[in-house]
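Anyone? Bumping this.
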Amino acid sequence: MSFADTASSAGQGQDRAKLFETLIRTTHAQAFQLAYRLTGSRTDAEDLVQEAFLRAYRFFHRYDETLPFTSWLYRIMVNAHIDHVRRSGRLKTSSLDEPHPETGGGWDLPDESASPERLLLEGAMEAEIQDGLANMTPDFRIAVLLADLEGMSYEEVAQIMRTSIGTVRSRIHRGRKQLRRHLLAKCPEKYEKLCEVL
Amino acid sequence: MSCRYVSSRIDPYIDGELPADEIAAIRSHVARCSNCASELARHRSVKKLVAALPASPPPGDLEARLVSTVLSSSTATKQASVSNLKFGFVAAAAVIAGFAVYNTFLKRDEAPRSEITAGAQLHPDRFYDGASNPLSPGVPVSFDRPR
């Protein structure tokens, strides 16, 4: 939903707080999805989404209403994520041999003996892909997720990352290579099996 | 078109970010080159894997928490601003009062001191005994009289 649609459905002449509340309600799930893939942790994703909305609300008067709200929100979220990564050094990664950090139990991994189609449908290799994303260079991870998960064009990614289309192209190329190397190193058989059906 | 050029264009090709004539040229090259076809398949598989990552729904109470926290942050900012304003008034009043006290009581005591200093400068060859210390009356001067 575009900003104009949201503003229209929320009622003309409403105050900014009411409008922003509508924007939170319509975009928070999508924002959480990206935040979760950026951080690799549901708890960190909640913090990142909250930080992004807090910053967005503080500077809402600067928002250009002709642009999609999510693009502006993602730009804020990406900056907050980079700030966090710089402060903490790197992302937390978890070993699949250890208990799940949030549930304390085991990892819900798909059965590797299942057919490739079924593996794909069940979100096979999710843990390995998430681990690969966490080990990627932050700028590459952001570019790949915006393009592949969010389906954004290079121009939109460039606007969010405040860089040129050429740089976005390079980051996506190198990011995908990093991720592929990671999957080939961690689970070559499963990766090759999935490649056959992709 | 060289394999090296195709390799540098594989990702924009997959993402539909190339002009039609370039897409046609790459498609033609890949149809004849197994190495480039393999590289294309590898990059495409990574894109599809990321795109196929399952949705991770947010916690049920996140929406309500966000609305509550974010919208109340504005109120907190306004309250902080009012508090800052009050603090500013108090601080300004304290500075003005301090300046008034300084002018009324302390500055008056400084006047004779500056006069004495000025007098001392007018008579550099004057030497003082303990009874006529110009800076601290009543305190003996410690330096010796020259011969």
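Late reply, but here is one note on the structure posted above: The longest helix of chain A spans residues 16-39.
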